[in-house]
Specification:
eight-stranded antiparallel beta sheet, alpha+beta, Jelly Rolls, Phosphomannose Isomerase, domain 2, about 30% helix
Length: about 425
């Protein structure tokens, strides 16, 4: 047994939107990794959590000690002094790594930045359990659908012109102000006066939708769904009418039909594609299986498609109101430079400090193929998602099967050894750049 490389037991969450029973990758991984887990075929399995977050902590599989306690006992060894200095913690990882299996739409939501998170946590710790921000990245493992950020403004303007139900909720005055005054085009710089004015107009429209009465939303939602059935071509995207119908079956007469379907980008990813979502950007996941990594926080400010607490006042005031195409939020992978050998390593490296994610695959490689990951400055967590292989450090060699999770300490070079060409793993890690 090694104190530098060891197996973890990871906990899972059974939210209503998760895939059911053995159809869920989360359930499959949890049960395969821990034989004591018995899959209940009528229940949803939504999220597998890997990390030190207090809500669902991970444990050393052999010693049953929590990863947080292991780190706390020797933070320099398990975090690295530069990581401690950068993130001001001697007890926890700066990231939280997850697998999500999505059957039904998650709530439309956004996450506060650091200053707002501290305020919300201090004032309402029940609904905001953390004082940290939560930028996040989603990597599609299967075909994936979601909402990501506000649409280009000209698309929203067109919908206000043609979708009567949307315009009725927003009101003629705000709708006309938006349509007549938004500035569009590729030459509008982020942060320019035109861009700032656009965001103010977008906030007015969104706030009107979010503050509409439940009775008005229900009435207009029924009419919107009727439109989707009878006049689908009046929607400016060919798949939008079908999306309205589909989501209304999950959440009838919900405000999400307006603040989501009509205001946010409908994003479709193929396996291997990824999106990055800054704090304060609205989003929701609709279907698929993803690897998700985020700053270590569980703060959520909800907007729609949920029976849970919705903090409309904070939501409307906190969003960045950044707008643009789906393509602007795609996170293309790059080669992972700190690896060598057979197989392939690609890295998803978002523009934040808390995490990056590396995918290692061996398609076309022979049994026994080896890919070396150099020792990284900070800690990391690995999950094997497909095929079979091993992780090796020194004399320690640990079996990898789907759902097996591992912790790798800083400055620990590890060999990824394939037993078959399907062997696939994802590694979340942090470095300080100090």
């Amino acid at each position: 047994m090694s104190d530098k490389l060891f197996r973890l037991d990871a906990g899972f969450q059974q939210y209503d939107w998760g895939k059911i029973g053995s159809n869920s990758a989360v359930a499959q991984f949890a049960a395969h990794s821990d034989p004591s887990v018995s899959i209940k075929e009528s229940e949803p399995y939504a999220e597998l959590w890997m990390g030190t977050h207090h809500k669902v902590p991970s444990f050393n599989k052999n010693t049953k000690e929590s990863l947080a306690d292991i780190i706390t006992a020797n933070p320099s060894t398990y975090l690295n002094d530069n990581i401690i200095k950068k993130f001001q913690s001697k007890t926890t990882l700066p990231f939280l790594f997850k697998v999500l299996s999505i059957e039904k739409v998650l709530s439309i939501q956004a996450h506060p930045d650091k200053p707002l998170a501290k305020i919300l946590h201090a004032n309402d710790p029940k609904n905001y359990p953390d004082d940290n921000h939560k930028p996040e990245m989603a990597i599609a493992v299967t075909d994936f659908e979601g909402f990501c950020g506000f649409k280009p403004l000209e698309e929203i303007a067109e919908e206000l012109k043609t979708i009567t139900e949307f315009r009725d909720i927003v009101g003629d005055e705000v709708a006309e102000e938006f349509i007549k005054n938004i500035k569009t085009g590729t030459n509008i710089a982020v942060g320019s006066e035109e861009d700032k004015a656009n965001r103010v107009l977008l906030q007015k429209v969104f706030s009107k939708v979010m503050n509409a009465s439940d009775e008005e939303i229900a009435l207009k939602a029924d009419l919107l769904v009727k439109r989707a059935h009878e006049a689908p071509k009046t929607f400016n995207k060919s798949d939008l009418a079908a999306l309205v119908i589909f989501l209304n079956k999950q959440f009838p007469e919900d405000v999400g039909l307006f603040c989501g379907c009509l205001m946010l980008n409908h994003c479709k990813l193929k396996a291997g594609e990824a999106i990055f979502l800054q704090a304060k950007d609205p989003h929701a996941y609709i279907s698929g299986d993803i690897m998700e990594c985020m700053a270590a926080s569980d703060n959520v400010v909800r907007a729609g498609f949920t029976p849970k607490f919705k903090d409309v006042k904070n939501l409307c005031s906190m969003l960045t109101y950044q707008y643009g195409s789906v393509e602007s939020q795609i996170m293309p992978p790059v080669p992972f430079k700190k690896s060598s050998g057979e197989g392939k390593c690609i890295e998803y490296n978002p523009p934040i400090d808390e995490f990056s994610v590396v995918e290692t695959t061996f398609k076309g490689a022979k049994k026994g193929a080896v890919r070396l990951h150099e020792g990284l400055e900070g800690p990391s967590i690995v999950i094997s998602t497909k095929g079979n292989g091993y992780l090796k450090y020194g004399d320690v060699q640990l079996k990898c099967e789907p759902g097996f999770v591992f912790f790798i300490a800083p400055e620990t070079p590890v060999e990824f050894i394939a037993e078959d060409e399907d062997f696939t793993s994802y590694r979340a890690y942090v470095e300080s750049d100090i």
